[in-house]
Amino acid sequence: PSTQLLDGVHVTITAGPTREPIDPVRYISNHSSGKMGFALAHAAAQQGANVTLIAGPVDLATPPGVQRIDVESAQDMLDTALAQAADIFIGCAAVADYRVADVADHKMKKTANTGAPTLKLIENPDILKTIAAQTKPPMCVGFAAETRDVEAYALDKLKRKKLALIVANDVSNTAIGFNSDDNAVVVLSEDDRVVFEQQSKQMLAQQLIHHIATHYHKHFRK
Ligand code: C5P
């Protein structure tokens, strides 16, 4: 194809949920499908990028031309992300905010005399923020799923996590986001705001990759 916006550019994308162990057979997780991240990986590869897709546990096929690395916990995802230095980093994963403080070595048993156990949780690292805080960071793109004040919260995340772009997504609308096949978003940077109307995650991914590539060439390519 003649339009290869990301020829020779290394793009790393996190996608899907993370899985935080409780004991060898149980975990805490969320309903993220990974569809948006996988669609972005596919679209970036179609634009000639060298794509690394760091995937939490999802039930999706690897897009053609994409190098996929499967991970489980947020800590695994962070370690893998740090090892995959890239030109563009897109944090699309629904990372669990907390993990269990003391993971049991053996299956926890239900015993009549001790009653219901209490799980102590501790905060997980912020993957995107950690990547963006490196000495020579890639161009970082985040996602913000919110149910109210969507753009205000997204802008706050853009600044706090030192991102180039943030993709804001109103998840109070059940027609879009999480498990659905469609999405509609607003992409914010320090100085612009672009609306992407409701469409399939595949179509949206192509438009987002075009927008991200344009921003990269304008502000980041040395
Ligand atoms: O959870 P939050 O709304 O702060 O997520 C915003 C962005 O930060 C998303 O792009 C998400 O992938 C990323 N994130 C992350 N590591 C976390 C939490 C969020 O990379 N622990």
What is the secondary structure topology, with strand pairs?
Elements: E1 10-15, E2 20-23, E3 26-28, H1 35-46, E4 50-55, E5 66-70, H2 74-83, E6 88-91, E7 98-100, E8 121-123, H3 127-132, E9 139-146, H4 150-160, E10 165-170, E11 182-188, E12 193-200, H5 201-219
Parallel strand pairs: 1-4, 1-6, 4-5, 6-9, 9-10
Antiparallel strand pairs: 2-3, 7-8, 10-11, 11-12
Helix pairs in contact: 1-5
Cytidine-5'-monophosphate binds at residues 14, 74, 91-93, 95, 124, 126-128, 142-144, 157.
Give a quick summary of the entry:
This protein has 222 residues and is of the alpha/beta class.
- Helix percent band: 25-40%
* CATH topology title: Rossmann fold
Query: Whole-number radius of gyration?
Result: 18 Å
- Give the ligands present: cytidine-5'-monophosphate
EC number: 4.1.1.36, 6.3.2.5
GO biological process, one term: pantothenate catabolic process
Pathway: Cofactor biosynthesis; coenzyme A biosynthesis; CoA from (R)-pantothenate: step 2/5; Cofactor biosynthesis; coenzyme A biosynthesis; CoA from (R)-pantothenate: step 3/5
Organism: Idiomarina fontislapidosi
